[in-house]
Design a protein that fits this description.
single chain, 82 residues, alpha+beta, Ubiquitin-like (UB roll), five-stranded mixed beta sheet, globular
């Protein structure tokens, strides 16, 4: 099981802050995104229409980051400064 957190407008879009997700096998972030997008609706829009950043165990990751049991995955929109 992994814990998935959603931040900022992603949380608002999904109306969800936290999701626990059972890992069927070892997967990477890209595969997780694909599985979540397959839920359709808002899930598909979240990954299709905007860039989504990811952190695994509070370290910035990318689509190739491999996930393992017990990981915490956080999705958040790009941050801009100014």
């Amino acid at each position: 099981m992994i814990k998935i957190l959603f931040f900022a407008q992603l949380r608002e879009m999904l109306e969800l802050e936290l999701l626990e997700f059972a890992l069927p096998t070892a997967i990477n972030v890209a595969q997780l995104k694909k599985q979540l997008a397959e839920k359709g609706g808002r899930w598909q829009l979240m990954f299709a229409e905007q860039e989504v950043l990811v952190a695994v165990n509070q370290v910035i990751g990318d689509d190739d980051t491999v996930l393992k049991e017990g990981d915490e995955v956080a999705f958040f929109p790009p941050v801009t400064g100014g």
